[in-house]
Design brief:
The structure is a homodimer of 537-residue chains. Chain A is 26% helix and 26% strand. Chain A contains 14 helices and 31 strands. In chain A, β10 (153-157), α5 (161-172) and β11 form a beta-alpha-beta unit.
């Protein structure tokens, strides 16, 4: 059996090494267009920021080691320019010599990943002071640029998690960093209420954020940016973190079926529409484990696991890929942000509407043990069934743990009704007797059983005006709103500390305010066992 | 409905407050023998060690707050001396005044917990310099003893996790701490190979461990201990952490059905054998969620959840307790030790033998990102089905997360075959592209599929003596053992760094050595994709 693998970053090497462990006889050839294989692309920002100083440490195995230790042939700086499914052969071009040759395969694995998606900005092709950080070669080049040019002002275009990791690392080098994004929030696809926490933290750390703005023209070889609001932004270093596009042109030309997002469609055996051609990693569209809907595969760790699984499948195991969940995490200064499954942004894009959400802010561990920090945990679940659709968390401690546990819960097909039963490790330095996940379950169940979270003024029972507690959550300096007279004002910012002022025995309404604040107030109250009703006006 | 709750530490208050939230009309009376209710007993060692300085912060709610905020009547320093299921009444004694009175109930909840189990050592009743740390009163008393007597030498009897937490906190105060245990390992019920790691750490931190030894006599009001090996141990402070026994005498006298371990037997509604009497927390015997066998409930967090659930059940919800998993965690100096489900010690006690184990030592996060530490992760699973029976982990980072994830996996009825599929949050500061849990799954699957892990010399195929690689893992200064000539010596301590010297293409045997070392070597190799066979002699 001769197996050719195209693409050597994450899924490809994982596949090839696993196949070798399973099968000593297979002939395995790995072809990579770039200079390096098997490296940790997620770690590149930390190399820029001097958190990781040895670039070689990011390369797990060299082509030489692949040959000597795993008996896998590797061609770097070689590009596959065509696939012929009929003759089961590929055309390979040596990018150094220009030589072109054919290779036959019995099985072909596409692990071609993605490349940077650059916005069509006037002058972008002239940028000489940075551009993108996608691979080891980019990292070495930018590092060298920083060492020799000593940029003082850096600009990152794109405030997604990847852009923010970059921004933090440039900031760590002492640069003044500006982040520009066309969206009005950072950290997309996280939802706005969590992004707002990240945004406040970034500002506090000294990053300049220009949100809801686009670069319309690049001048001076990247040193001057003109924004859509007229701002002229000078910069010494310019990096785009504006998303990716799949490297699927080769597959398209060979006639493989692509999704509308240009990703290669695979079945549960990770097989493409062409016989004996498989695909793994960021270039594929697969099925969501949660909803069964088509979703792109977007994570190096997923690529790794798909590679491992595919080796078993090609070697004859009757296993199937169970679908993609999607779990992301990023360290952003002192915060950890992490999500699993769908965010509300993603649900909206998928047209899913029958869900509810909760947001709780418990301590990550016992408040009386040192360094307890508030965790912001949002859970999204299906109405009626309580099926967990997704979760997001932001905080200084215990974020990765909770999202890991919720991802495991999703894999186990648990619902919010199961979350109170989870027996998570408790001792004061690690958790609370009721872990945040247990609390999230309790609050979600309350939310599902509640008939009305919001009420119109006209629907409030008349007797309630005499007996209920009407809470006004505006900050001291803000104007009152709405028509219902409040019993008491407790600013949202003080609510958690002043919970004792809310009578447990009375029905609680929150008087009208615009925006998310009443919702957040209700969530804080719900997290503390108080089920408040929001007044809509 | 009048509901009486006996016992006010963990499960009782959780039950009472939840019932009040569900039901404004119920009359709720909580009776506690001690001075305090609703406190964090797990935090008491940290109060001794000055990690937590405010004892009041450990008391979540006072009786006054219970009354004013939750409308729950509380009697502290009152003991229930008898239950009469026929008349549905209890006899209560005011421990301050001696007054005795009756209270009627519609529903009775026993949350009486456990008390310290003191070994029958001659002179133990004379101890005046410590004794046990079970409640807030004990903590205040020992703290005061330390402040006034300034003990220099402390002895903790019992090297279980609770004893070790105590020892660490006394050590933090500058005392010379000795820990004595009759077992030959620390941290029971953790298995020996993990306990050995903890033991080495404790010794490194300067604790003196006397294992496999018992105290046979206590003299000088606790200041002199005579051990079974003749050692005379002087000590200024003496604390017993020698386990607990259930406070079930009251239940026994009332005719409630007890298990042989003296715990109260409850059904899936948390009901005892007597009508309208329920029990929760450490005093009950319940069913294992994992095996269905009877197990004691041993955790404050489980008590808390049982209390919450029982309130729903008594209020009419048709819910059931899904069984006890058992998840423990302790911080021991720089290490975190945590387990979920069964350890091998527990499996042996339960008579379960059809299981396999793996022990892996991966990095908790990417080795190239700062502060990566080795995690020691043991997984125990059923032969054939791969059902997860338990897990244990020891390390400096990421221990709580992995055990929390595995506990969630157990709740979701996942098997080791599912573990490679878990999508756990990956970014270099938090994990590796293949998380330790994924790796544990891969290794466990390999283990299940392996026909023989060990082989007798006589069963080794003759041809293998010419072609296989026989690895000798003794340290440089140790004698050779066994009859099979080794191909190469790589000391176990260097094995991980010298893996490249083991030829992937040859069958690997590990030559005979006594004890756990060959097993550990095989686990290291398995974690790196090398399936070695142990030679038995």
């Amino acid at each position: 059996m001769k197996v050719i693998v195209i693409g050597g970053v994450a899924g490809g090497p994982s596949f090839a090494t696993r196949l070798r462990r399973l099968n000593e006889q297979a002939e395995i050839l790995l072809i990579e267009r770039g200079d390096y294989i098997s490296y940790a692309s997620c770690a590149l920002p930390y190399y820029l920021g001097d958190v990781i100083t040895d670039l070689d440490s990011l390369v797990e195995r060299t082509p030489e080691v692949f040959k000597s230790k795993n008996n896998i042939d590797v061609l770097v700086r070689h590009e596959v320019t065509a696939i012929d499914p009929a003759t089961k052969s590929v055309t390979v071009k040596n990018l150094t010599t220009g030589e072109v040759f054919q290779e036959k395969y019995d099985k072909l694995v596409l692990s071609t990943g993605t490349r940077a998606l650059l916005p069509p900005i006037k002058g972008i092709e002239t940028v000489a002071n940075g551009r993108v950080l996608r691979n080891v070669t980019d990292a070495a080049r930018i590092k060298s640029f920083i060492a020799t040019q000593r940029p003082k002002k850096a600009t990152v275009i794109g405030a997604g998690p990847a852009g923010l990791e970059l921004a933090e690392n440039l900031h760590a080098l002492g640069m003044t960093v500006t982040v520009v994004d066309q969206l009005t929030q950072v950290a997309f696809p996280y939802d706005p209420e969590l992004a707002a926490i990240v945004e406040a933290h970034l500002t506090e750390k000294g990053l300049k954020l220009l949100l809801g703005k686009t670069v319309v023209e690049i001048q001076d070889a990247g040193q001057t940016l003109r924004l859509n609001d007229g701002t002229v932004l000078p910069t010494d270093l310019l990096i785009f973190a504006t998303g990716v596009r799949p490297n699927s042109e080769l597959a398209a030309t060979a006639g493989l079926k692509l999704a509308t997002n240009r990703r290669i469609i695979v079945d549960e055996k990770l097989a493409t529409s062409a016989p004996d051609i498989y695909a793994i990693g960021d270039v594929i569209e697969t099925k969501s484990y949660i909803t069964g809907l088509a979703v792109p595969s977007l994570l190096a760790s997923a690529a790794n696991r798909q590679g491992h699984l595919l080796a078993d499948i090609i070697n004859g195991a009757d296993w199937t890929y169970h679908g993609y969940i999607g779990t992301g995490i990023a360290k952003i200064f002192d915060l950890t942000v992490s999500f699993v499954g769908y965010t509300e942004h993603m649900l909206k894009a998928a047209g899913i509407t029958n869900y509810k959400t909760i947001l709780i802010t418990p301590f990550d561990h016992s408040y009386f043990y040192p360094d307890a920090k508030r965790l912001n945990l949002k859970l999204i679940f299906e109405v009626e069934t309580g099926k967990i659709l997704g979760a997001q968390a932001v905080g200084e401690r215990g974020v990765d743990k909770r999202i890991g546990e919720l991802s495991t819960a999703i894999t186990g097909r648990l619902t919010v009704f199961d979350l109170p039963n989870l027996e998570l490790p408790y001792s004061p330095p690690y958790s609370t007797t009721r872990d945040p996940i247990n609390t999230a379950g309790y609050v979600a169940i309350n939310q599902l059983k509640r008939t009305a979270l919001t009420i119109k003024v006209s629907d409030i029972p008349t007797t309630d005006f005499a007996t209920a507690f009407f809470l006004d959550i505006r900050e001291a300096d803000r104007p009152t709103m709405g028509t219902v007279k409040a019993t008491k004002n407790i600013p949202l910012s003080e609510l958690r500390e002043r919970l004792a002022e809310i009578p447990m025995e009375r029905k609680v309404y929150i008087t009208f305010r615009k925006g998310l604040n009443p919702y957040n107030a209700a969530r804080i109250l719900a997290g503390n066992g108080i089920e408040a009703v929001l007044i809509e006006e």
